[in-house]
C-alpha cells in the first residue's frame, strides 16, 4: 500500500516550506499541494484505491477549512486509509482538544513545522509500518 | 233410690289408688271430641275426682255433681241422660246449663260414679257420639277395675287406724240408720259423760236434746241423711256456745260404711278446729300484711332456712331481679346463687346460731342469665313456718360499684396522665393555696427554691421567692381568680439552666356553678419554640432587607377567588402606586408582548395544571411604559392534591441584565482578539520562523535565498498591519463601554 503525502494550506510560502521539509525528512519524494480543503477532498475521492494518505492539514483556509475537510472525510469509506497531522499557527487549546476528537488525527503541530517533527512522525505507531521498508 | 247400689268400700279404695294421670287419656280424647266446657269423672264415696275444664270451674264441682246425679236417679246403667238448666244453686253459680251423664257401674251392677259432659253445645248426642261416650265410660270402668291393690296391707293399715282412733282428741262415733250409737272412741265417750254424767251406750240416740242446740241437731240430721246416700264428705260447722260448751268450730267428716251393697252405718268424726280456724284468720290477717311488706315489696327479698340454707320464700322483686322463677328458687340453696369461691366464704361466715342479730354483708350473687352482681345484704333472724330462718333484703350495688371503680380508674388515669408529662400542671384555691400539682411542678419548685410544696401551702409565699416574682404571680392569680382565662408568656432567664427561659402558662378558673373555686394552671417550656421564633423573626427581617436590596417582590394568586396580591416591591418594580390592585389579566399583560408574555403564560398554565414550578428571565413593561428585565419565579401550593394558590417572587434584574450584556460584548471582543492572536498574528510569525529554520540549513533548489528573505519582509509587514487593526478594535469597544 502506497502512502501519499498531501499538504493542504492556503499560504503558498507555507506549502513550499512544508514540501522542502517533507522531502528532507524522507517522508516522501513527491508531496502533493492543495490551497484549500475542497481541493484535497476532491483529489482523495477521485483517486481513491488502495492508497493511504498522510495529510499535513492547516485549519484556517478559504472555501473548506481543516475542520470541514475532516468532517467531510468522516462520511467516506476510505476514512480508515487517512492519517492527518493538524498543522496550524493556532496555539489555542480549544483547537487541540477539538482535533483529538477525530480518529484520523494522529498529531497536532503548531507552526512552524520542522524536519525533526516530521522525522518523529515516521515513528508514530499508526503510520510506522509505511516507513519500515 | 230403689235400684241404687253404692260401691263397696274397696271400690272406693281402688279409685283412690288410681294415679293422677290414669284418666288423662279419657279426658283428653273426650274433650277433643265433644264440644263442652267441662268433662268430668265423678266417683261416689271416693276422695279422688277428675275433671278437665276450659274455665275456672272449681274442683269441688264433681262432688256436688255426684250428689246431684244420685238425687236425680241417674242410676240407669246403660243410658245417657241429659238435664237442661238444672235449678240447683251450685250449678247456677258455676254457670252450668246442661249435664249429659252416664253412670259408671261394676259388673255386679253397683254404681260407683258418673262420667259427665257439662255445658255441651248440642244436648242431643248422635248415635255415634253416644257410642263414643259409652266407650269412654267403659274405659273408665276398666281403669278402676284394673287398679291393683294390696288389700291385705290396706286392711292392716285400717286396723292400725282403729288403735289410733282412741288416742286422738277427735270425737269419733259410729251410728246406724236410726242415728243410734253403735260405737264411739274414748274422747267421745268421755265428753258425753262430762256433759250428761252418764256413759253413752250402744243404741242411744246420739243427738242429745238439751245439750246439742236445735240448730246443731237439724244440721246433723241433714248431714247424716246425705251421708247415708253413700256420700263421703266433710263440713266445717260453727257451734254457738251453750252452758255445756264454748263457741267452737267443728270439722265434721261423714264416712258412709257400705255393707252388702247398702250404706248401713256412718262413722262421724268431729274435730275441734277452733284454734286452727282462729290461727288461720290471724294468719290470713298477718298474711295480708306480710304480703304487702314482703311479697310486693319493690326491694328484692327472701327468707331462707338457716340450717339448710334453702330458700323458703322469695318476693316478686327478687324473682324479677334474679330471673329465677319461684319454683327454681325453692329448689336452690343460697350456695347456688354465688360464685364458688364466695360459697366457701359464705359457709365459713354463716352461723346457724346467730338467730336474731341484724347483719349486713357485701356479697356477689349470680343471676339466672349468668351475670354476677354485687349486692349489699341486710338480714335478720326470724321464725318462718316453724323454721329458724333469716329474712334477707338485697341491695344491688353493681352499678354503684362500677361507677366507683370507674371514678377511681379515672382518678388514677388522670394522675398518671398529668405525671407523664414534663409540662407543669397545678391548681390553687381562692387563697392561692396549692390544691393539686403534678410531679413536674413540684420538682421544678424544689429545684428552684429548694421548697417541697404540699397541698394547702401558699404557692406564692415561701422562703426564697423574690418580691418581684411574688408580685407578678399575685397579679396573675388575681386575674384568673376573677374569672379570666388567658395565656401568659413568662421570661425567666435566671432559671434557663434548670427549666428554660421561656414558659407559656395557660390560666383557667375552676368554677363550681357560678362560683369560682380556684384556678388551674398549665405551664409549658417554650424556650426552644421561642428561640426558633426569634430566629425566624430575624431571618424574616434579614430576608426583607435582602429583598429590598435585591429588589425582590412577592406576589400570590388565589386560584379559587382569582385574587392577585402584589407585595410593595413588586409594585415598585411594576411602577404602580402602592394601592394598586392587580388582576390576573393585568398581571399577565404586564409582561412584554411576544416571547416574554408567551413564556410566562405557558409557565403559569403549566404550574397550575401540573404543579411544575418555574423560574424565568423575562421582560415586563412597567406602568410608565419602561421595559425591564425581571426574574419571575412561581410555585403552586397544593391542598389534597389540588392547586389552591400560586405564589412566587419577581426580581428586578434589569441592571444585571444590562451589565451582563456589556460584559458579554467585551468577552466577545476578547475572544476575537485571542482568535486573531492565535490565527492571524501567529500565521506570519510562524511563516518567518519556518523560513529562518530553512535558511539555517539551506540546500534547496526549489526556492532561492532572495525569494525567502523577501518573504520574511512581507510577513513582517503583515504582522504590523494586524497589530494596527487590533488596536483599532479595542479602542472602539472601550468607547462603547464608556457609553
TrEMBL record, chain A:
Extent of the signal sequence: none
InterPro entries xrefs: CheY-like_superfamily, Sig_transdc_resp-reg_receiver, TCS_response_regulator
Chain positions with 4-aspartylphosphate modification: 58
Keywords noted in UniProt: Phosphoprotein
Recorded superkingdom: Bacteria
PANTHER family cross-referenced by the UniProt entry: RESPONSE REGULATOR RCP1, RESPONSE REGULATOR RCP1-RELATED
Protein name: CheY-like chemotaxis protein
Organism: Arcicella rosea
TrEMBL record, chain B:
EC class: transferase
SMART domains (alphabetical): PAC, PAS
Keyword Kinase: yes
Entry-linked Gene3D superfamilies: PAS domain
Coiled-coil portions: none
Enzyme Commission number(s) of this protein: 2.7.13.3
Pfam families: PAS_3 (PF08447), PAS_9 (PF13426)
PANTHER family: PAC DOMAIN-CONTAINING PROTEIN, PHYTOCHROME-LIKE PROTEIN CPH1
Keywords linked to the UniProt accession: Kinase, Phosphoprotein, Transferase
SUPFAM superfamilies from the UniProt entry: Homodimeric domain of signal transducing histidine kinase, PYP-like sensor domain (PAS domain)
Catalytically driven reaction(s): ATP + protein L-histidine = ADP + protein N-phospho-L-histidine
Tagged with keyword Transferase: yes
Name listed for the protein in its UniProt record: histidine kinase
Domain PAS, chain residue ranges per copy: 286-342
Transmembrane segments: none
Cross-referenced CDD domains: PAS (cd00130)
Residue ranges of domain PAC in the record: 614-665
Organism (species): Arcicella rosea
A molecular function (GO) term: phosphorelay sensor kinase activity
Amino acid at each position: 500500500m502506497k502512502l501519499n503525502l498531501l499538504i493542504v494550506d492556503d499560504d503558498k510560502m507555507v506549502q513550499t516550506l512544508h514540501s522542502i521539509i517533507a522531502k528532507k525528512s524522507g517522508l516522501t519524494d513527491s508531496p502533493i499541494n492543495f490551497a484549500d480543503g475542497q481541493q484535497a477532498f476532491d483529489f482523495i475521492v477521485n483517486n481513491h484505491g488502495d492508497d493511504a494518505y498522510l495529510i499535513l492539514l492547516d485549519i484556517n483556509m478559504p472555501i473548506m477549512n481543516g475542520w470541514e475537510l475532516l468532517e467531510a472525510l468522516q462520511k467516506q469509506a476510505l476514512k480508515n486509509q487517512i492519517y492527518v497531522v493538524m498543522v496550524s499557527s493556532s496555539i489555542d487549546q480549544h483547537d487541540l482538544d477539538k482535533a483529538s476528537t477525530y480518529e484520523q488525527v494522529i498529531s497536532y503541530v503548531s507552526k512552524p513545522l520542522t524536519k525533526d517533527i516530521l522525522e518523529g512522525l515516521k515513528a508514530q505507531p499508526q503510520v510506522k509500518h509505511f516507513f519500515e521498508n | 233410690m230403689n235400684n241404687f247400689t253404692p260401691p263397696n268400700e274397696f271400690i272406693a279404695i281402688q279409685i283412690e289408688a288410681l294415679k293422677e294421670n290414669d284418666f288423662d287419656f279419657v279426658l283428653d280424647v273426650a274433650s277433643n271430641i265433644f264440644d263442652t266446657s267441662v268433662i268430668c269423672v265423678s266417683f261416689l264415696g271416693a276422695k279422688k275426682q277428675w275433671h278437665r275444664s276450659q274455665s275456672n270451674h272449681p274442683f269441688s264441682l264433681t262432688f256436688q255433681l255426684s250428689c246431684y246425679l244420685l238425687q236425680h236417679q241417674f242410676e240407669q246403667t246403660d243410658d245417657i241422660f241429659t238435664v237442661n238448666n238444672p235449678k240447683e244453686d251450685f250449678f247456677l253459680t258455676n254457670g252450668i246449663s246442661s249435664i249429659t251423664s252416664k253412670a259408671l257401674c261394676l259388673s255386679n251392677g253397683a254404681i260407683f260414679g258418673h262420667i259427665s259432659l257439662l255445658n255441651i253445645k248440642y244436648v242431643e248426642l248422635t248415635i255415634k257420639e253416644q257410642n263414643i261416650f259409652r266407650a269412654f265410660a267403659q274405659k273408665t270402668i276398666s281403669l278402676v277395675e284394673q287398679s291393683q291393690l294390696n288389700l291385705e296391707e290396706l286392711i292392716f293399715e285400717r286396723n292400725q287406724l282403729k288403735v289410733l282412733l282412741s288416742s286422738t282428741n277427735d270425737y269419733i262415733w259410729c251410728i246406724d240408720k236410726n242415728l243410734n250409737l253403735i260405737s264411739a272412741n274414748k274422747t267421745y265417750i268421755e265428753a258425753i259423760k262430762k256433759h250428761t254424767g252418764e256413759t253413752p251406750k250402744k243404741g242411744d240416740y246420739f243427738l242429745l236434746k238439751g245439750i246439742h242446740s236445735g240448730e246443731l241437731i237439724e244440721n246433723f240430721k241433714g248431714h247424716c241423711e246425705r251421708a247415708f246416700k253413700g256420700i263421703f264428705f266433710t263440713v266445717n260447722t260453727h257451734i254457738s256456745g251453750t252452758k255445756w260448751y264454748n263457741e267452737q268450730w267443728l270439722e265434721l267428716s261423714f264416712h258412709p260404711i257400705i255393707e252388702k251393697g247398702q250404706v248401713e252405718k256412718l262413722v262421724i268424726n268431729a274435730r275441734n278446729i277452733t284454734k286452727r280456724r282462729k290461727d288461720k284468720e290471724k294468719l290470713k290477717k298477718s298474711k295480708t300484711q306480710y304480703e304487702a311488706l314482703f311479697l310486693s315489696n319493690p326491694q328484692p327479698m327472701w327468707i331462707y332456712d338457716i340450717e339448710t340454707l334453702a330458700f323458703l320464700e322469695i318476693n316478686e322483686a327478687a324473682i324479677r331481679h334474679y330471673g329465677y322463677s319461684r319454683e327454681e328458687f325453692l329448689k336452690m340453696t343460697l350456695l347456688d346463687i354465688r360464685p364458688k369461691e364466695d360459697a366457701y366464704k359464705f359457709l365459713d361466715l354463716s352461723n346457724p346460731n346467730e338467730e336474731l342479730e341484724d347483719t349486713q354483708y357485701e356479697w356477689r350473687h349470680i343471676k339466672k342469665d349468668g351475670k354476677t352482681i354485687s349486692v349489699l345484704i341486710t338480714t335478720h333472724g326470724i321464725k318462718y313456718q316453724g323454721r329458724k330462718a333469716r329474712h334477707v333484703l338485697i341491695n344491688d350495688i353493681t352499678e354503684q360499684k362500677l361507677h366507683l371503680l370507674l371514678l377511681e380508674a379515672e382518678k388514677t388515669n388522670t394522675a398518671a396522665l398529668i405525671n407523664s408529662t414534663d409540662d407543669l400542671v397545678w391548681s390553687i384555691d381562692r387563697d392561692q393555696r396549692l390544691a393539686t400539682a403534678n410531679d413536674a411542678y413540684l420538682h421544678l419548685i424544689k429545684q428552684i427554691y429548694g421548697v417541697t410544696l404540699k397541698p394547702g401551702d401558699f404557692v406564692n409565699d415561701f422562703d426564697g421567692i423574690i418580691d418581684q416574682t411574688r408580685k407578678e404571680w399575685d397579679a396573675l392569680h388575681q386575674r384568673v381568680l376573677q374569672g379570666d382565662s388567658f395565656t401568659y408568656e413568662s421570661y425567666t432567664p435566671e432559671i434557663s439552666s434548670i427549666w428554660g427561659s421561656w414558659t407559656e402558662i395557660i390560666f383557667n378558673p375552676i368554677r363550681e356553678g357560678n362560683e369560682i373555686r380556684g384556678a388551674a394552671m398549665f405551664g409549658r417550656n417554650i424556650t426552644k419554640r421561642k428561640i426558633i421564633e426569634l430566629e425566624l423573626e430575624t431571618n424574616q427581617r434579614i430576608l426583607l432587607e435582602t429583598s429590598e436590596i435585591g429588589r425582590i417582590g412577592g406576589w400570590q394568586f388565589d386560584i379559587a377567588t382569582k385574587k392577585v396580591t402584589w407585595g410593595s416591591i413588586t409594585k415598585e418594580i411594576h411602577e404602580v402606586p402602592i394601592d394598586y390592585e392587580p388582576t390576573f389579566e393585568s398581571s399577565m399583560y404586564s409582561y412584554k408582548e411576544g416571547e416574554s408574555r408567551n413564556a410566562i403564560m405557558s409557565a403559569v398554565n403549566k404550574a397550575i395544571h401540573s404543579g411544575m414550578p418555574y423560574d424565568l428571565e423575562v421582560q415586563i413593561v412597567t406602568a410608565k411604559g419602561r421595559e425591564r428585565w425581571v426574574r419571575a419565579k412561581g410555585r403552586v401550593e397544593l391542598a389534597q392534591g389540588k392547586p389552591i394558590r400560586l405564589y412566587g417572587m419577581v426580581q428586578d434584574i434589569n441592571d444585571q441584565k444590562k451589565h451582563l450584556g456589556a460584559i458579554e460584548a467585551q468577552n466577545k471582543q476578547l475572544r476575537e482578539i485571542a482568535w486573531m492572536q492565535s490565527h492571524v498574528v501567529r500565521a506570519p510569525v510562524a511563516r518567518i520562523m519556518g523560513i529562518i529554520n530553512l535558511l539555517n540549513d539551506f540546500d534547496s533548489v526549489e526556492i532561492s535565498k532572495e525569494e525567502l528573505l523577501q518573504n520574511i519582509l512581507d510577513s513582517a509587514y503583515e504582522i504590523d498591519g494586524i497589530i494596527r487593526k487590533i488596536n483599532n478594535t479595542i479602542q472602539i469597544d472601550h468607547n462603547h463601554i464608556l457609553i
